[in-house]
């Protein structure tokens, strides 16, 4: 069903594809589609947001690595993995549709909000910061801004290997700054 839906979204576009089209292509009843997903937007994003799934897992520090460093590594890897996936024409088309269709943009924000809550819970459980929700919001805002800017360049056909390499080098620094800021604020509150 997901494969049929994503093929139709790619061929026809999100707005021109109905749940009835998906059900017919998957040879299932419309109700069967809704038994698996709550909305057409959810179906569009099904199995296409591995970065959000990665954030639902607690950071796994490597030997000698702090939890904060593991968070930076995890977020950088998730962001860079997403951006590298845009080399796939179907995923690039998906990104272009997200940019062009307000309902998909809103749903993507919902995905990010859930990922933010998951990250906050994982930060709290790992004892990384005393303000996990604020820290998670700042960390994911940082990754979103950088990823969104690069995604727009990919869609426009103006991205370069150099710009992706620059992002991969800069993003960990910015994420580390966020963690330092929130840690400093937490220490100031204790005084």
What features would you highlight for this structure?
191 residues, mainly alpha, Arc Repressor Mutant, subunit A, 2 domains, 10 helices, 78% helix, 0% strand, globular
Give an account of the 3D structure:
With 191 residues, the chain is an all-alpha fold. Helices cover 78% and strands 0% of the residues.
Number of helical runs?
Answer: 10
Q: Structural class of the helices, strands and pairings?
A: mainly alpha
**What is the H-and-E element order?**
HHHHHHHHHH
End-to-end separation in angstroms reads 56 Å
How many discrete domains? Answer: 2
CATH architecture of the largest domain: Orthogonal Bundle
Question: For the report, how would you describe the main beta sheet?
Answer: none
**Strand content bin:** under 5%
CATH fold group of the largest domain: Tetracycline Repressor, domain 2
Shape field: globular
Helix content percent band: over 70%
Number of beta-strand segments: 0
What is the CATH level 1 assignment of the largest domain? Mainly Alpha
**Radius of gyration over C-alpha positions, nearest whole angstrom:** 19 Å
Briefly summarize what is shown.
By secondary structure, the protein is mainly alpha-helical. Helices cover 78% and strands 0% of the residues.
